[in-house]
């Protein structure tokens, strides 16, 4: 068994090295430092110009002038990067006033909703979907596990579902 394993590992190593052999640089394939590349010429991009006799210097001068005018446009301010700033307190999420009735009803039912308002509203919108019976159950389970209520999961599901049906469906 050990011979079979050793032979397999040796064969695997051989194939691995053979596969990598074509990725290495051969000494004869290096580019000589004396080799140069011809500079690229700017063309008109296949468009015919009204002045075919215009020299490359005139075209270059015109392009430089146009790019300078475009970059100094005063209509758009240049974007500015700013450094990171230290934050002393995390921003509090703003809750839409149209959801206040639902949130007040859930809070009145004995659930601490501070900090989870958006999650509750999102879960409540799924109460109108007859195919989604998991979201409200998951949110209710989280509220119970986070000790935001003294109720059990079934009571919290019933509370959220009842208030959501009244508010959104």
UniProtKB/TrEMBL annotation:
Keywords: Signal
Residues covered by region (Disordered): 23-102
Domain of life: Bacteria
Signal peptide, first to last residue: 1-18
Ranges annotated as biased composition (Polar residues): 91-100
Keyword set includes Chloroplast: no
Comp. bias intervals (Basic and acidic residues): 56-68
Coiled-coil intervals, chain numbering: none
Protein's name according to its UniProt entry: DUF732 domain-containing protein
The organism of origin for this protein: Corynebacterium stationis
């Amino acid at each position: 068994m050990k011979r079979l394993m050793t032979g397999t590992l040796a064969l695997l190593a051989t194939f691995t090295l053979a596969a990598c052999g074509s990725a290495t640089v051969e000494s004869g394939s290096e580019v000589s430092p004396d080799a140069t590349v011809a500079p690229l010429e700017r063309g008109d991009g296949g468009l015919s110009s009204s002045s075919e006799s215009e020299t490359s210097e005139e075209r270059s001068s015109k392009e430089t002038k146009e790019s300078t005018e475009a970059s100094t446009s005063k209509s758009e301010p240049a974007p500015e990067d700013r450094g990171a700033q230290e934050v002393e307190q995390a921003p509090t999420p703003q809750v839409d006033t149209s959801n206040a009735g639902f949130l007040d009803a859930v809070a009145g039912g004995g659930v601490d909703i501070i900090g989870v308002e958006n999650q509750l509203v999102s879960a409540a919108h799924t109460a109108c979907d007859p195919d989604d019976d998991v979201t409200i159950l998951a949110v209710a389970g989280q509220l119970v596990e986070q000790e935001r209520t003294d109720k059990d999961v079934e009571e919290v599901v019933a509370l959220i579902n009842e208030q959501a049906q009244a508010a959104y469906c």
